[in-house]
Queue: 2 jobs
Job 1
Amino acid sequence: MGLSLHRTSAIVLRNYNLGETDRITVFLSARYGKVSGVSRRARKLASPFAGRLEPLSEVDLVYFLREGKTLARVNHVDLIHSFQALREDLSRLGPALKMSELMDRFTREGEATPLLYGLLARSLRALEGEVDGIALLVPFVLNLLALTGYEPQLGQCVHCSKTLPGDAPSFSPLLGGILCSGCAPLAPDRLEISPPVLAALRCGLRAEPGSPVGLPGPSAAVQSCLEVLERYIQTRMGRAISLRPFFDLPRFA
Ligand SMILES: [Zn+2]
């Protein structure tokens, strides 16, 4: 069976321990999609991997993969960007880890996903800037949904196709989009969404991946966007998922 050498930039999604001294790292790579690799003796103090496999780190990764196998052997790792600034600020670390977790859950090993890699890398860089981390989560999630085939319909009524400008319709997670007032009663799972929430969702979907967008409306609208998206993902994908970052963030006005 052949053993092939791969080289790619990659972002560390998570680590877990293997045996006494080894570590398995799950990467999102630019060229090969999600990759899980064993780093031998990575947990020894003198390991050449020390400090290079922290979650969120962007690295230049070299690994071997045996034909027919999914677990790679990490050969060499060089740090490209540590994203240390994100680890030092809880209001950024929460959204950053949430982006990383979502990327992990929306990808599988063996599928090349260069657009998803670009989305995560650009979103993490934008988070380093002076932006509202929670507001950045909304375009991140909407872009992630669009790139993985789950884009919600936000322009027209998902049932009768009537174009809806900006008035307050409903959103049906089950039907996957907004509903006009005439069709809304057809969807028992509908959520009422206010014009600022619809405007913020539309803005997030149009936003360049990772660009620090100023979502319109008050920050309460951003929180509502995350709640709508959370219900949508749970319904459409059958996965319980939380879009709330881990840390207690400043209250929304
Ligand atoms: Zn309709």
Job 2
Amino acid sequence: MEEFLRKELVKCMKYLHTKGLISGIGGNASVRLSENEVLITPSGLLKAELHPSDIVKIDMNGNVLSGFLKPSREGKLHIAIYRARPDVSAIIHAHNPFTVGITLAGKKIEPVNYEAWTMFKDVPILEFKLPGSEDLANLVAQNIKSNSAVILQNHGVVTVGKTLMEALYIAETLEEVSTMIFVASCLGGAKLIPREYMKD
Ligand SMILES: [Zn+2]
């Protein structure tokens, strides 16, 4: 299982980079391995060129259990989310340019397609806190309680799921919807899904 999850993390980072959702060394991801063990991407390396052995194993206090590299500087954020959300087993932090760009302009990410409507009806936009800080970790953990995604103002997005692929799908859909909204805004504004279909 551990080997499979290490490979999934490597695959996920490569995919995020290919899709332009992270820069060379930006972004991070983790999976919960057991009650007290988390596999997380390392800090400082090119995320598209990671090897399964580069993934670091930490405990729920952030101590390194195995691995020769430094864990992501957002390790605190990942641990705070796992503590707040026992149902979550995977976390992605990416720098979605369209999602962040739209919120920088003070606009909301409306769920303009069906996937977005079912996954994240109202994505919270969290005030800026320093990357890697305790404040950021606490703010995200408090606000992701009933959401599958949050947007970090002037920074990026955090998505969660039962699996890494679920968190990845949410991060990508968020960017897809943001791109649609951007295109629509250049041409006069986005239409929403008809109201009769937007019921729970
Ligand atoms: Zn970041």
